[in-house]
Design brief:
heterotrimer, A mainly alpha, B alpha/beta, C alpha/beta, A: mainly alpha, two-stranded antiparallel ribbon, 12 helices, 68% helix, flat, disordered N terminus, B: alpha/beta, Rossmann fold, six-stranded mixed beta sheet, 10 helices, globular, binds adenosine-5'-diphosphate, binds magnesium ion
Chain lengths: 322, 284, 266
């Protein structure tokens, strides 16, 4: 209860921490644009390596970035497969017939079983998964034993491979960028930065301040809510609910027994919170001064200039290289 | 013994990997019947954590809890069926809002028994019995649990546990937030249950007057350790009371003040004002 | 000074929650409001800070008649500490929470920082400024709430069962602050079930089912057995013994005085 971390902020003191959250958010957006403008493999790899250098200088362990990538690995895998299989431009680099016979399928099933049994002892789970996929494909391609009852064609074009690679690198860059932002910026500063950047929206009657206030209250109550959910679960478990077991019908009741108290408590809480805020002179929409303000430094200006320049440079490169 | 703690420790772990000792080497025996135990100690001393071990909601990080012959320790496999223990040892949480969720009080009280595969008819029967036990009448059964006052919600949540017919009843801060009348009524209720059904009752409280009034045995927690286990009389004579940040019950505090002022002795401590009055009448 | 005149209120349902309540609280006084759960104490507090609007009657705070226009002026004068420590902590950190009210009042940043330091120190939370609420105990959160109200410089502070969710240590800390604030000349209203809190106050207001049962000096209320029996106050043993001895006709001035003194201590 005492130690739930919100966001991923880890304390530090490198230049990344000293920067204004506004410039960090802006730089993130600018670099994302650049990433999508670039179409040359070498150039995008250069961008990635520059980012890695910044990471190193900023004192952020690469391990944290890899952690940040973990949730999107499935996504990466599917886009990769999709790109490789369905984009048919460029040269053909692989054109093999797949033989589906009783024996090859049996072998493939064997490989899958072997993978399932052994995977828990292997440390590099993802590489191991890829190895299994490659293994299965090679069985179908290179061991045409038995009478095939069906055949398929696996054709891979350079275009497909390139596209897949690009999407991957872009995703990695985006995740890296946003991980840098969330690792080095306190949630409070992040909301404040967001608020300032959204200020222009007041023209279309969207109050940046209110959005920011909502976000910061949400941040403040996440640990409380988690703690409460845990307690409600224990309270219902005391009445014999076994959250690990039960038929579908029981499961529904179990979830209701959790959600109804959560909902009712939250409703009461928001009512009381609103009272407390109003009693302390909060009036929605009124001007407020702020304890925290953001300070824009030279480094922020430089960052924005450099990141902004990358866009025209990227466009230029793209045009020049055709 | 119904519940036996042997060298039980429990650590909460935080995401950054550090551990916090919430229970340290607890040894404790609790009998099946006849005990009225008060569990006291500062906020954060581990009281709630301790009672959640008593019905196997939590498993010790080290050491062993034995509940009705079933041994629970860290190494035991996950397959162990623990839910039946929760029927034997009924635990009422501090806030009734944590458990009330059904449309009617009747259905809410039936929820516990139904989870233990009691038939619908039997569960209904039990709900009717439980609502009377907690001092409300049957008309409450058809009401929504959300339109009740704080004290009534509390009673319904207790009825929901009583309907499971546990041997031992554990209550986490049942009287906090209630007015004096509501509090006294609840304490009378616990005493009644204790006397009529001889169930062992354990209550967590900060109110030393309650401890003095009803507890036959007192457990004091301090920073995860069980520092006292004995009668209330022994506790209030204990030198360490102050050190443990515990206050004396009002009656005892005054008794001691009078004892000192008039150089008299009034032991055992009077349980109520009438007893005290008789003592003091003779002196003056 | 607070004047409540013939105030009635309902929540658009059933009977009135407050029925024709009138009383006056003078500046610098400490007043306890007692009564069962549901007797309308919190409703009364919310009416005074304008979170609810009276159905009938009027409320005047320091000469300002409370209405829709003046409500913001009134809230600058009256602060309120609620029961649940968790549901009134608005800031992400202690310092943000203390600042919240001042930010709303558009204090300058320098002023805000200065006051955060001053009042965090007064409530003993100066070492916790960057802590988040889930790292604090209930008593600490209530202290932060008090600092936030002191920082807004309100003359009147209402404590709505602010100690009822705390353990005895937390409660005693808050009681100590109340005494301190009283010395600073603040007007204090404590809503409580705890006689130890009530005996510290100058006056007692006793509500029963939305009606004002008693309003008198604390000492007078405690002296008067008839009033006490009517009310729902829970008497401390010393006071019980005091009245028992009085009733029994035992004449022992010395013991009676002693018990009386005990009854007025916390
Ligand atoms: N889910 C949790 N995660 C981490 N720490 C916890 C959790 N629950 C309780 N604690 C900590 O364990 C200690 C004991 O808590 P608890 O048993 O609730 O105490 P008590 O009931 O005596 O107030 C406290 O310091 C508390 O902060
Ligand atoms: N928001 C609300 N809506 C409807 N009824 C309410 C609401 N708040 C309180 N009440 C009712 O008004 C009465 C007085 O409540 P309250 O002022 O909170 O009492 P107290 O603070 O003395 O316990 C109670 O009967 C309660 O049920
Ligand atoms: Mg607890
Ligand atoms: Mg109230």
């Amino acid at each position: 209860m005492n130690n739930i971390v919100i966001g991923q902020y880890i304390p530090g003191s490198s230049f990344l921490y000293k920067m204004d959250p506004r410039s960090k958010i802006l730089a993130l957006i600018l670099l994302m644009v650049t990433t999508f403008v670039l179409t040359d493999i070498i150039q995008i790899l250069v961008l990635l390596s520059v980012l890695l250098v910044i990471l190193k200088l900023g004192g952020i362990p690469i391990g944290r970035i890899v952690k940040g990538l973990r949730p999107i690995i499935v996504l990466l895998f599917f886009t990769f497969t999709f790109q490789v299989l369905f984009i048919k431009t460029g040269r053909i680099i692989l054109d093999e017939t797949l033989h589906y016979s009783f024996y090859t399928i049996l072998l493939a099933v064997g490989v899958v079983l072997f993978w399932m049994i052994t995977k828990r002892f292997i440390k590099f789970k993802i590489s191991y998964f890829l190895m299994m996929i490659v293994g299965i494909l090679s069985i179908f391609m290179y061991y045409p034993i038995g009478d095939p009852f069906a055949q398929g064609q696996l054709v891979i074009y350079t275009g497909g491979l390139q596209g897949a690679f690009f999407i991957m690198v872009r995703l990695i860059i985006i995740v890296t960028l946003s991980t840098i932002l969330t690792l080095t910026t306190k949630p409070t500063d992040l909301t404040l930065g967001l608020e300032q950047l959204l200020k222009p929206l007041s023209i279309i009657k969207v109050s940046a301040e209110e959005i920011a206030l909502i976000i910061s209250i949400a941040l403040r109550y996440i640990p409380t809510l988690l703690d409460e959910a845990n307690k409600i679960m224990l309270a219902q478990a005391s009445r014999g609910v076994d959250f690990k077991e039960g038929k579908l019908k029981d499961k529904v009741v179990q979830i209701i027994s959790l959600l109804v108290p959560m909902f009712i408590i939250s409703f009461k809480r928001s009512d009381e919170l609103a009272n407390a805020m109003e009693a302390r002179n909060f009036v929605p929409g009124n001007r407020r001064t702020r304890l925290h303000i953001l300070t824009w430094q030279t480094i922020d200006t430089i960052t924005i200039i450099i990141t902004a320049i990358t866009i025209p440079v990227a466009i230029l490169l793209r045009v020049m290289l055709g | 013994m119904a519940i036996k703690f042997t060298e039980v420790s429990y650590q909460y772990s935080s995401p950054d990997g550090s551990l916090f000792d919430a229970l340290k080497n607890i040894n404790l025996d609790i009998a099946k019947t006849g005990e009225f135990i008060a569990l006291i100690g500062e906020t954060g001393s581990g009281k709630s954590t301790l009672v959640q071990h008593m019905n196997a909601l939590m498993k010790p990080s080290s050491g062993q809890v034995e509940i009705y012959g079933i041994k629970i320790n860290h190494s035991k496999s996950k397959k162990q069926k623990l839910t039946p223990l929760r029927q034997k040892v009924g635990l009422v949480f501090q806030f009734p809002e944590y458990q009330l969720f059904e449309e009617t009080v009747m259905r809410d009280i039936m929820f516990g028994p139904r989870n233990f595969n009691i038939s619908k008819e039997e569960a209904k029967q039990r709900a009717r019995k439980a609502i009377i036990q907690v001092g409300l009448d049957e008309s409450y059964l058809e009401r929504s649990p959300f339109n009740l006052s704080g004290g009534e919600k509390k009673r319904v949540s207790i009825a929901g546990i009583l309907a499971m017919e546990p041997d031992i009843l554990v209550l986490d801060e049942p009287t906090s937030g209630l007015d004096p009348k509501g509090r006294d009524a609840l304490i009378d209720l616990f005493t009644l249950i204790h006397n009529t059904y001889h169930k062992t009752i354990i209550i967590i409280t900060h109110d030393m007057n309650i401890v003095h009034q009803v507890a036959s045995r007192v457990l004091v927690m301090r920073e995860g350790e069980l520092v006292f286990d004995g009668t209330s009389e022994a506790l209030f004579n204990n030198e360490s009371l102050n050190k443990w940040n515990l206050e004396e019950p009002d009656l005892i505090k005054m008794t001691k003040q009078l004892e000192q002022r008039y150089s008299i002795s009034m032991r055992p401590f009077p349980k109520n004002i009438d007893q005290l009055f008789h003592h003091i009448k003779d002196v003056i | 000074m607070i004047t409540v005149e013939h105030v009635s209120f309902d929540y658009h349902s059933q009977p009135d929650v407050l029925k024709d309540v009138s009383f006056t609280i003078d500046k610098g006084r400490w007043v306890s409001i007692l009564g069962h759960n549901g007797s309308g104490k919190s409703t009364l507090a919310k009416l005074i800070v304008g979170l609810l609007k009276a159905k009938e009657g009027s409320i005047t705070v320091d000469g300002i008649v409370l209405n829709e226009e003046t409500v913001y002026q009134v809230r600058k004068k009256v602060g309120i500490v609620f029961q649940n420590p968790d549901n009134q902590f608005v800031g992400v950190t202690v310092e943000d929470d203390i600042a919240f009210g001042m930010e709303n009042l558009c204090f300058t940043r320098e002023e805000i920082t200065k006051r955060i330091d001053k009042y965090a120190k007064q409530v003993g939370m100066e070492d916790y400024l960057s802590k988040e609420p889930h790292q604090l105990s209930g008593g600490q959160k209530q202290r932060v709430a008090i600092a936030g109200i002191l920082a807004m410089d309100t003359d009147i502070i209402i404590f709505d069962e602010a100690t009822s969710m705390l353990d005895p240590i937390g409660r005693d800390e808050i009681l100590a602050f109340m005494q301190q604030l009283k010395h600073q000349g603040k007007t204090i209203i404590t809503i409580t079930h705890d006689m130890k809190e009530a005996v510290l106050s100058d006056e007692i207001i006793d509500l029963k089912e939305g009606q004002l049962l008693t309003h008198d000096k604390t000492k007078k209320v405690l002296q008067d057995k008839v009033t006490l029996n009517k009310s729902n106050l829970e008497l401390l043993p010393s006071l019980k013994l005091y009245h028992k001895i009085k009733e029994a006709g035992i004449v022992n001035e010395e013991l009676r005085d002693y018990l009386w003194q005990l009854s007025l201590q916390k």
